[in-house]
């Protein structure tokens, strides 16, 4: 078994008494105090996550935007400089390799942030498609650390540390030119709250972490992060997305810009074929977990839970579930089989919790 990787903040987590677990090949903090306290800190004030396991690729040169626009399904070319764009990365058959965020830092300079478990897979795929484009593609994941500062007080806190930080629009990015080690700050996040992702070289991020701790920001682990993203119904690769699904199967049709003609998977995705529907289910009793069967009113299995948890905000079970499109019940009556007992589940159209992002 290969040795687990550690972020450059690992010792800080241990000092704070974090419980460490293996995740995507890394030793990561799963919680510090309690999941409930960490979730509520983010929803009401501010919390910070070490997400340095994520990957960072840079594309630079006159064809940078054109190349990235070819790789992903969303529209990169018409987005202005300074914008962040969420998108699936697909194969020719339309299946999802990963979901990622593209940051247009400057003309001819693009950063791509990818999921930790997919760094090598994504980079190999992109390199295989790089021929004929006048730009460089570089994997700088090993020199970057990344913090996610999330919650309604995040801008105030970050502005006190970085006075030159502008009041960015949601899904925008700012590259600081000050100091020896510039940092990249995006007003994005995975919690539904206002927040920022802060990319920088390792020592820069270690210094930032210490300042945030001195300012009383709550350190948060992977468990709180998963509850937060599920409360606002954000997908997670390996759960709502995987190698066998296309974006339509995961409710991400809005990220597929079919008016673009030159992107990988265009021909298949133009057929808009999907075999699955992703739904949101709320339970008054019982905690749904990944893999639990979803049943219709006749007691027939029609799908399964992709992610499930107890919502801290609602104090109820919540889940995302993938059901077969030809088995979607017209009566909208669902239940979840939790250890051979059926629990009624209410389908919702909107996320379980409304975040407060800008």
Portion in helices: 10-25%
Oligomer: single chain
Distance between the termini: 43 Å
Strand content: 25-35%
Q: How do the strands line up in the largest sheet?
A: 11-12-13-10-4-14
Poorly predicted sequence stretches spanning 5 or more consecutive residues: none
Count of the separate structural domains: 2
Order of helices and strands: EHEEHEEHEEEHEEHEEEHEHHEEEEEE
| CATH homology-level superfamily of the largest domain | Probable tRNA modification gtpase trme, domain 1
Helix count from the secondary structure assignment: 8
Q: How many individual β-strands?
A: 20
As a whole number of angstroms, the C-alpha radius of gyration is 21 Å
- CATH topology name of the largest domain, in short, is Gyrase A, domain 2
The CATH architecture term of the largest domain is: 2-Layer Sandwich
Explain the overall architecture:
This protein is of the alpha+beta class and 358 residues long. It is 19% helix and 32% strand. It has a six-stranded mixed beta sheet, with helices on both faces. It has a six-stranded antiparallel barrel with strand order 15-18-17-16-19-20. A hairpin with a 2-residue loop joins strand 2 and strand 3. Helix 2 crosses helix 7. The longest helix has 13 residues, at 202-214. The radius of gyration is 21 Å and the shape is globular. The N and C termini lie far apart (43 Å).
Put the structure in a nutshell.
The protein is an alpha+beta fold.
List keywords for this structure.
358 residues, alpha+beta, Elongation Factor Tu (Ef-tu), domain 3, 6-stranded mixed β-sheet, 6-stranded antiparallel barrel, 8 helices, 20 strands
